[in-house]
Amino acid sequence: MSHAPLDRAAEQAITWMVRLRAGTPSAQQRARFDSWLASDPAHQQAWAQLQRGLGSHFDVVRQAPERLRDSLLHAESSRRDVLRGLVGLGMLGSGLWLAAGSDQGRVLLADLRTGIGERRSLALPDGSRLSLNADSSVDVDFSARHRLLHLHQGSLLVQAAADPLRPLVVRTAQGEAKALGTRFMVERQADSTRVLVLEHAVRVSLPGGQGLELQAGQCADLYPARIERLPGDQRFRADWQQGRLSVFDEPLEAVIDALRPYRRGLIRVAPQVRHLHVQGVFALDDSERTLTALAETLPLSVEHYGPWLTLIGPRS
């Protein structure tokens, strides 16, 4: 699969936008930005395009109360998080988004993709069944010699058709999961990959060679240099296939992360409440009702600023 060339000027413009908006820039930082802007006409063009894409929505942020502005433009906001929220609202064109980085270019150009709030199930060429969670993307690379799925974003669940000569493999940046005649789930997380076995067994491995075999109900997180197994039966984590979010003593931050693929715009969670413990079963397809339920059962406030920003913080 071919990928569009990346525009370095647009990449740098996005980096500067996030850097300058993430707090009060120093005089030195402003001077470096001015120098970058004046050094190349392509920089000026990329910056102008970015500002046109943001349009009046960012004007609202600039004029917002300090608490709201700081919550949206907190230094912890990654470029990827900000852009995903803006693209979900149509504030940036796809060309500029592709230039945000090769990873996101692959997400948008993937063979199979789902949008915000969309789940999809389909048959693969070998007869395997694939389900994609919302906001997910995967490339399919099947040949006479191998069956390979590249998961770039989100979650997938696959029922692997039997083929002893071509084991089905799901690969991510952190490693891979090889089916041993099985049904299993793979999920991309911020800095790891989660693999959950629903039936039979899966062998997970890191690029460096470290590996582990997981049986039905077992789950492990793959990091660049280690594999961490989660305790107990974890099969409830695949309930998204039925539109449910099942939570058993998880931090609020993890619950909100699971809701992000089902809501447009940005969701910011205040540091004071990120680690509140949550338990329950919630509706993914009605994220507003889920947020209301969380606010009713936890000491939280949920504030909406139009369709593009939701702030979750401690209740006054």
Structure explained in plain terms:
- This protein has helices at residues 8-21, 27-38, 41-62, 66-72, 79-88, 94-98, 102-109, 252-259, 287-297; strands spanning 112-113, 120-123, 129-132, 137-142, 147-153, 155-159, 168-171, 176-179, 183-188, 193-199, 201-205, 211-215, 219-222, 227-230, 244-251, 266-269, 277-283, 300-304, 309-314.
- The chain has 316 residues and is α+β, with helices and mostly antiparallel strands.
- It has 3 domains: 8-109, no CATH class; 112-235, Sandwich (Jelly Rolls), CATH 2.60.120.1440; 243-314, 3-Layer(bab) Sandwich (Phage tail protein beta-alpha-beta fold), CATH 3.55.50.30.
- The strands form 4 sheets. The protein has a 7-stranded mixed β-sheet. Strands 2-3-6-9-10-13-14 form a 7-stranded antiparallel β-sheet, with no helix packed on it. It has a 3-stranded mixed β-sheet with strand order 16-19-18, sandwiched between helices.
- Helix 1 (8-21) runs parallel beside helix 3 (41-62).
- The longest helix has 22 residues, at 41-62.
- The model is unreliable at 1-6, 55-65, 67-79 and 94-102 (pLDDT under 50).
* CATH level-two architecture of the largest domain: Sandwich
Please state the structural category.
alpha+beta
| Overall pLDDT | 82
Share of residues in helices: 25-40%
User: Which class of the largest domain in CATH terms?
Assistant: Mainly Beta
Q: In which order are the strands of the major sheet placed?
A: 1-4-5-7-8-11-12
Strand count: 19
Shape: globular
Give, in order, the helices and strands: HHHHHHHEEEEEEEEEEEEEEEHEEHEE
- Given the structure, what is the number of helices? 9
And the CATH topology of the largest domain? Answer: Jelly Rolls
